[in-house]
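Colleagues,

Please find the record for the two-part complex below.
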Amino acid sequence: MSRADWGEEEGLVADVLVIGGGMAGAWAATAAAREGAHVVLVEKGYCGTSGATAAAGPGHWWAPPDPPEARANAIAQRQRIAFGLGEPDWMRRVLDETWRLLPTLAQYYEFPKDDQGKVRNYRALRGPEYMRALRQQIVDLGVVVLDHSPALELLAHADGAIGGAAGIRTQRGGSRWRIAAGAVILAAGGTSFRSHLLGSRNNTGDGYLMAAEAGAELSGMEFTAAYTVAPQHSTMTRTMSYAFADYFDADGRQIDAPFGPDQTERLAQALLAGPVYCSLARLPEDVQRHLPTISPNVMLPFARWGIDPFRERFEVTLHTDGTIRGIGGVRVRSEDCGAGIPGLYVAGDTASRELVAGASSGGGNVNSAWALSSGTWAGRAAARRARRVPASFGGLKALGGAGLRPSGRARPASAAEAVAAVQAEMHPYDKNLFRTGKGLAASRRALDAVWSDLAAHAGGEGGTAALALREAAALVASARWSVATAEARTETRGMHRRLDHPALDADLTVRLIASGFDTVTVRPEAIAVPSPFESVA
Amino acid sequence: MIELIVAERCTACDRCVEVCPSNVFEPTAAGPPVIARPDDCQTCFMCELYCTADALYVGPNADHAESADQLVVLASGLLGQYRRDSGWDEWRDRYPNEQWLMETVFRRAAEDAR
């Protein structure tokens, strides 16, 4: 394989390399550093503003150990919407880790206190402040943070163990970096398939691509049909105010889409028929008044457009959440979030959240508790591995394929066209939300053609052009795994809705494991027998 | 999308260059940064939050720029709204972080829907 000529190269050595500086990556770096590891964290954008958490407000899944039934109830509640794909043991571990860890952030995050000085709430954090706190925490722990330094590919030893990564510095002319590490944690986020979901532009599924190139598998990729309402043309996918929303068609007739589990489907049906308008008039007056200090970004589009959302109707749309509020990701192979490849761990949305979310969206709560927990477990395990396996550049082989090293002759390729093709298959409600075997087969053929072209010819570029092609490759690969598993799941379960198979099929209470690039394969895998609920407390 | 850097407010601290997650800005040798890659803007408003000079304006339209008029924006009082409502920097004591109320709002909505 030819190595792309990227000029000057910067080399670093670490015990643990964390790829991704969102919530999961920052908690992973925290845990690894607390184990005594020398940690380097690389982030495509800026650790503190980049990723889905930063502009949102994660209200972690939370249940205290006391009263004893609190956790059992939380798990039982989740299991009712997990449709057989959740695992209570993992849920219990996540609830416990989240409950233990969040209060430890008090040095960096100002948790709200009541009049007696008692902390009101540890679970609901505001995104920008949360990520600012996590950044300060890892900096104080001695983690080396490289902003604007996206990873492009993993590096492996001759035995297949992961021993580092390579990437570029986007603010230094695209110059190249290489980092050798005893262990690598992929915390690169999920993907919205480049929708306008708030804060998700950098989340192009890079972690899925890099993990799969190392030999890891994907699980639950069919569960990408999560959508969130936002004012038309805006990115403001903040849901709270919409809990009280009323919706209307172009003729002013109210759309029957009450707050509840079917609301997204009903709105999507209405949007397929024409424009949809929203009224927030029912939002209680006291909430209207407090809205700017609850979620300060929600009012920004309204104020700038001169819309009074409590008195005027405004047009809305639904943005694809993909695997971000969706579920799929790298198959987790061990309790410490190992990806099944020595030296490689996965955390946050890069990992499949089926274990804790099942077949329904993990929303901001289960998914954020998972990001914190999986990051922590991966960070600890990576640090322990690094004690046994020192970092070494010797014999490291670069694993990057599509977009970086074409299998055929390199020729100019358009990342933008590949991205547009992915958007065209993964965003439309009548393709990804309301699925049919026929529609999915058409999506598969369209995406296969894009992949063949990218894999054969895209590459040989340096700097940010290489980054754009890698992002395109990650998006196309992620979309293909999603479509292939959605085709194989010939039933309706949780957020996966098949119009041609509207009922749940008990025989499909399995995980669907996807792998491969030029040929995507899907196989079922039995689910670990759930532990008896009596042991939950 | 990012639309304006108000030159007379900008202190050329280049903090926006550092914190923009999609590397939209480019520093200049002397003076304010420039909006070099507007199409990469993800309309997250994060740059405004970190701009203590309130010199940045992100238009709410993520599909295309709306050609905001600097004089109109300055007169509107919208610059710095996000940083103020977030209680950052000098607004710390006057705008409390009430994020914790969110779950009670959802609970009320669920009760309302029943």
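The first strand of chain A starts at residue 9 and ends at 19.

Comments are welcome before we finalize the supplementary table.
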